[in-house]
Amino acid sequence: MPYPQELVNEVLEYLDSGHSVREAERRFGVGCESAARWRRLRDGILRASRPHPVKYPQDTVRLALGLAYGGHGFGLDEVAVMVGVSAPTISNWKSWYVEGGHMDIPEIDPGETKHLSPDGRARMTDEELEEYIHKLELKAAVLEGTVKVLKAEGIDDLSNDEKAAIVYALPASFAVTEALPEVGLSSSSYYYCKAKPGRPDRHGRARAAIREEFALARGKRGYRYIRQRLREREDPIVVSGKTVRRLMAEEGRRVSYAKKRRSYSYYAGGISAAPDNLVARDFRAEAPNEKWLTDVTRFSIPAGKVYLSPVIDCFDGMPVAWSIGESPNAELANSMLEEACGQLADGEHPVCHSD
Q1: One domain for residues 84 and 166
Q2: Start and end of every Integrase catalytic domain (predicted)?
Q3: How many domains does the chain contain in total?
Q4: How far apart are CA 209 and CA 230, in angstroms?
Q5: 53 lies in some domain
Q6: Residue 32 domain-assigned?
Q7: Are residues 138 and 20 part of one domain?
Q8: Rounded to the nearest 10 degrees, how much is the dihedral formed by the CA atoms of 119, 57, 127, 95?
Q9: Residues 64, 187 share a domain
C-alpha cells in the first residue's frame, strides 16, 4: 500500500531530528525498512527502481581477474576504471570464479596490458580520465581526514563513529554514496552514528538522581543502596542493578572502602634464612642419636590449650625429651633441646630436623 507523501515527509523530518527508524515505526506505524528506504532514496543512496543486473562478457571477467590478481601491479580500483566495472564486482568475481574453483587466475599477455599501463592512461577518454582522477581525489581526501582529523594510523583501526566523522568532514564535492565504501561503512551505520550527538540520553533522569542520592549518602553506599533509593523516590526510577553500577562508574561515583585490618597472628615470620634440609626426607638412622625430629603440637583439654614440643629419635621412634607449656614460644623449644642435649654422650652430634 503506497503511503501519502505528507506521511513520508513527516517520517523523514522525524529521522533528521535524531530519532531512529525503530522509533519512527512506533510513532507513525510504518515499517522500519520503509522508513530507512525513504531516507536512502532521498539521499541518492537507493535508486527509485532497480535495473536488471548487467551480465558482463566472459572476456571482461577474464581480463579483470587477470589484471587485478595476476601480478601486473594494478590496484583493484585501477582495474575497475580500466575495464569499466566496479571494484566490488571484481571482488565478487574472484570469490565466485577463483575461490569457488570455477576458474584459475587468468594469465594475461603483457601485450594486452600495454595500453592499460600507467603510461597508457594518456589514451583514456576525457570522461574516463576525469572519473579516474575523481576516485584518486576521494581516496586522498579520506586518508587526509584520517590523519589530520582523527590522528589515526589507518582506516582499519577506526570505530564506526570515527569513520562517520571522516565522511561528514569530507568536502561537498564528494557524495556520501561514494565515500561510504571507501571507509568501509554501511549507510545505516553512518546515519546511526550521525544522529548520536543529537539523540537524548535515555538515562538522563537516572544520572541526576544517582548523583543526588550518592551525595546524600556521603559517598559511602554502593549501587544496591542507590538502586533501592531510586525506586523509593516520589517519582520512582526503575532501572536494573547493572545499569545503576554502570551509570555510577560513568559519573565517577565510587565508594571508598576502609582497608580491612588483618587479624592477629602470633607468627611474625622468619628472623633469618632457613637452614639447608640435611635430612632430605630420609628418616632412617643406623644408630641412636643420629637423626632427631621435632615439632610443636597443640592439644585442647578441658583446662584450655596446651602445647607439646617433643624430640623423636629416628633410630627407634622413641622420644628423647619433651616439654609442655601454655604457649608455643622459644622457651618451650629451648627447654626441650637442653634436656635432650643433656643425654648425649661424648662424640654424638645428631642432626635435628624441624618444620
Answers
A1: yes
A2: 284-355
A3: 4
A4: 7
A5: no
A6: yes
A7: no
A8: -70
A9: yes
| pTM over the 0.85 mark | no
Residue-wise DSSP of 107-124: PPPHHHHGGGSGGGGGGS
Residues spanned by the domain of 70: 58-194
- Residue recorded with cell 552514528: 193
Residues 63 and 109 in one domain: yes
Any idea how long the chain is?
Answer: 355
How many Å apart are CA 37 and CA 48, to the nearest integer?
10
Pairing of strands 291-294, 297-301: unpaired
Same domain assignment for residues 82 and 160 = yes
Q: Is 245 exposed, middle or buried (0-12, 13-18, 19+ CB in 10 A)?
A: middle
Does residue 131 share a domain with residue 12? no
Beta strands in 179-334 (DSSP E): 291-294, 297-301, 304-313, 319-325
* Residue 323 near residue 336 (C-beta atoms within 8 A): yes
Name every residue whose Cβ is closer than 8 Å to that of residue 150 and which is 6 or more positions away in sequence.
Answer: 158, 162, 165, 166
Q: What is the mean pLDDT of each run of 10 residues along the chain (355 residues)?
A: 80 84 85 83 60 62 80 76 76 78 72 52 65 71 58 60 78 77 82 71 85 88 90 90 89 79 65 77 85 89 89 88 89 88 86 83
* Phi-psi sector, 14: left (phi>0), alpha (psi -120 to 50), beta: alpha
301 vs 289: CA distance, rounded Å: 32
The pLDDT of residue 227 is: 92
Note whether 290 and 273 are within 8 A (CB).
Answer: no
Ramachandran assignment for 204, one of left (phi > 0), alpha (psi -120 to 50 degrees), beta (any other): alpha
Grid cell listed for 270: 622468619
Which 8-state DSSP code applies to residue 220? -
Residue 187: how many other CB atoms lie within 10 Å:
16
Tell me the C-alpha to C-alpha distance, in Å, between residue 338 and each of 158, 164, 178, 312: 77, 85, 95, 14
132 and 24 in one domain?
Answer: no
Q: What is the pLDDT of residue 51?
A: 44
